[in-house]
Hints:
Blueprint: H1 2-21, E1 39-44, E2 58-69, E3 74-81, E4 86-89, E5 92-98, E6 100-106, E7 111-114, E8 122-125, E9 134-141, E10 152-153, E11 156-161
Amino acid sequence: xxxxxxxxxxxxxxxxxxxxxxxxxxxxxxxxxxxxxxxxxxxxxxxxxxxxxxxxxxxxxxxxxxxxxxxxxxxxxxxxxxxxxxxxxxxxxxxxxxxxxxxxxxxxxxxxxxxxxxxxxxxxxxxxxxxxxxxxxxxxxxxxxxxxxxxxxxxxxxxxxx
Length: 162
């Protein structure tokens, strides 16, 4: 009697496994990836310079910075000044040095320049996902400003909008 039950159970198992192997079902689906515009600033250092109102103007005092954007991203670089585009003397806020901030971006086949990103943002399109070949900030101070000796500072916020 025990042998008949085992044989019956084995027979059902074999029949079931054969039924599964007899058919298949397939379908297709699409994989989609959307690449969004994106930029990030990689490095941005402070700028220190000497100014003498009797000497020629400080022009094109350059400082590099680094950023990258996804290839094809249209971006704009602008800046704001905490002191309204003035370097302000630490111990006398009435003493100010006016200045501008130019920016140059250079890729292998194109470049963009703004003489003053405080007033005229720079616009460009990323040619590659790598940082531009050159990204420079230029601090420009005109000569002849009536200022006293001391240390003058401003805090600049550089913004990349994409």
